[in-house]
Amino acid sequence: MTDSATTPPRQPMAALPGGEVTEGGPMLAADGRPLKHSLKRALRREKLRAFLLVSPLLIFILVAFVAPIADMLFRSVENQIVSETLPRTVVALREDQNLPEAAPGEPVYEALYTDLFIAAEYKSHTRLGSRLNYEMTGLSSLFRGTGRDVGRFDTDIYTDQFVEAEPALEDPVAWSNWMADDEIRAALPATADAWDAWVKLTVEANEDDPLEEDVEDFVYTALYRDLSNGAAPAGFPDVDVSGFESVSIKALFEESDEDWVDPEIWQVIKTYSPAYTDGYFLNSVDMMNGPDGDAQWRPADEQIYLKLFWRTMWMSLAITFSCILLGYPIAYLLSTLPLRSANVLMILVLLPFWTSLLVRTSAWKVLLQQQGVINDTLVWLGIVSDANRLALINNATGTVIAMTHILLPFMILPLYSVMKTIPPSYMRAAKSMGANDWTAFWRVWFPLSVPGIGAGSILAFILSIGYYITPEIVGGTEGVFISNRIAYHISSSLNWGLAAALGTILLALVLTLYWVYDRIVGIDNVKLGG
Amino acid sequence: MAGLPPYASTGQKVWHYSYLVICAAIFFFLIAPILIIIPLSFNAENFFTFTPEMLALDPEGYSTKHYRDFFTNPDWQVPLWNSLKIAPVATFLSVALGTLAAIGLSQPHVPFRRAIMAILISPMIVPLIISAAGMYFFYSRIGLQGTYWGVVLAHAALGIPFVIITVTATLVGFDRSLTRAAANLGAGPVRTFFKVQMPLILPGVVSGGLFAFITSFDEVVVVLFVGSAGQKTLPWQMFTGLREQISPTILAAATVLISISVVLLVTLEVLRRRSERLRGMSPG
């Protein structure tokens, strides 16, 4: 805080009486500066002070709340896992010409061999498998199974043949000397890349000293590839590989799991190899990236989200409508009663408003059960027979009843505050001019109360489309909302990207509605507890 | 609709009384589910409905065993204490930062006031499940997920809009010449704040604090995601109970919470009246 409040002469208000007009010059403040500057400075200070008072909270909210929301938005498009886990394969796939008609050529499998070997050591291949499984079922077990096999591939024949031809090739110290030579590295690119990956892997994942470990098969496999391409760098042992027995990596993968030669699988990997994807959003609206890269509908039995969005919408509308139906008479009664009795009745509205949400939800869970109070009463009154007790819970009916009860105060309070401003003399005037009760209400009172209906409806609708707790408890499977699906994807299926995309769509919907609410009512007019 | 004029026709009378009956039914719908919890919580059996003994008002049918369970069973006591450890700290954070910011926002010249206000109010607007998802993702990145402070920060963020709204509303009626007078009489800004401004806006601050407290105390969605088993709060325990196997102790817990809300409601009403009286007395 600045000390401007303690030095009155610098305050703009105080500067005026102390100011004096010099002949022909600008008006001066008490300290001799031009008054204009003094005022500007004071204004700047005041702005700065106000901003300093707000800034701690602003920073707090930015870190604790806005950053998480931004993180969610980012996660809904982020897809770096494929290119991070299989970097070489992604590059090789980009150059491959065989897809989508046939399985990719040998270079892609060679790249996949190196990538998968490393991923299996870091155990990151299972995460990638689960990620790709969202796009095509079966990929999770494919990656898991081959991740186990990849260390035992028959590529050790290269190791054996190289070591037999040149024993120095078994020595990791000699390797590290060669690999420090830039010319050798340039001549043997695949080998250098595999060597670097192996050193990193040995240090990071296994915490060993690479100079004391046996070099892995995939480095020799890369070396075979480089040398058979005709590379012969100076300083590197001259090994003739033309007589080597060779093995097809593609065949090894096919042996591990024949799905690896299925072009469809490769198409999925290729489609989801970029670092950012619209896949989660497409999934949120029951679409997916087809084999040719175009968006297309998912198979009918996998389409659930549009239906869920639609259900969330119409159930929220039903809840909003029941709130209007029940809230309007109450608000009308409260606004026409004398203030004292209205205040007493208002307590009946505010008590539910202030009661814990869990308490109200428990109450409904208890009341609506098959053996609950409502069914017992109905049976006792003879309205329903004991055998056909009503199914009021674990379906859409339960959600609508409980949510209407929970959101009703949010409808009554704005309605009441609008109706309070309608002068009662209007109704009297209408009646004195010959309108009957209904006409006076319908032509005079009702139109004046429409802003209240608008405000209350938007508020109730916004609150209800994002509700989670109550539908989860009383909604069963038929009465749940999109938010329950978001929670499911975060905590059970662990498909965070899809949860983030669904959340982003819901957020966009809510913000649009709030924008409308702001235009109609103004956020500043939000009142708490009437 | 206050009263029926003496010249009302039969039709008007019928309509008037049926309207009152409709209103009574709606009030019943609003209040009965909450009130019915209270007698049910004294059920001597493990049922969720009235037993014949209870309906016969037989003392045998009633017991406080669910309350004994609530106050002795660690399944309920640990969450209760967790709630009581989290809510006050979160409330303190929201009130301290929120009051400061509300005072800043009430100054006549604040750059980007609308934008700042929108950001500060946003935790109230964004659906809880979305806040919970975002916080879960982000707090796991920075290592706050599953910690006490993670939950406190999350709850403080959720409580801030209420503090901002109530304190800003109180400051609208605040006469700024009072602070100038204090400054003129030689008080420093801190002294002016605590001696002059704070006592006048106190009702707003306290009711904002109550809102923030109840937000944290009653919150379940965010703590479900941001917290771990060590931060299990009372609403979380109730939620688990409702979703998995429902035990009648939940009704005792609910009754305790209803009493807390009644106390809070009365406090707020008293504060509102006091604030109106104070504002009525202050000049301008």
TrEMBL record, chain B:
Q: Where is the ABC transmembrane type-1 domain?
A: 80-268
Matches recorded under Gene3D superfamilies:
MetI-like
Q: For this UniProt entry, what's an example GO CC term?
A: plasma membrane
Q: Where in the cell is it found?
A: Cell inner membrane; Cell membrane
**Which ranges does the record mark as transmembrane?**
19-42, 86-105, 117-139, 151-174, 200-226, 246-271
Q: How does it sit in the membrane?
A: Multi-pass membrane protein
Q: Which domain of life is it from?
A: Bacteria
Q: Could you provide one GO biological process annotation from this protein's UniProt record? A: transmembrane transport
User: Looking at the keywords, is Transport present?
Assistant: yes
Keywords (alphabetical) are:
Cell inner membrane, Cell membrane, Membrane, Transmembrane, Transmembrane helix, Transport
SUPFAM superfamilies on file? MetI-like (SSF161098)
Could you tell me which PANTHER family the record lists for this protein? INNER MEMBRANE ABC TRANSPORTER PERMEASE PROTEIN YDCV (PTHR43357:SF4)
Q: Which family does it belong to?
A: Belongs to the binding-protein-dependent transport system permease family.
In Swiss-Prot or TrEMBL terms, this protein is called Polyamine ABC transporter, permease protein
Organism listed in the record: Limimaricola cinnabarinus LL-001
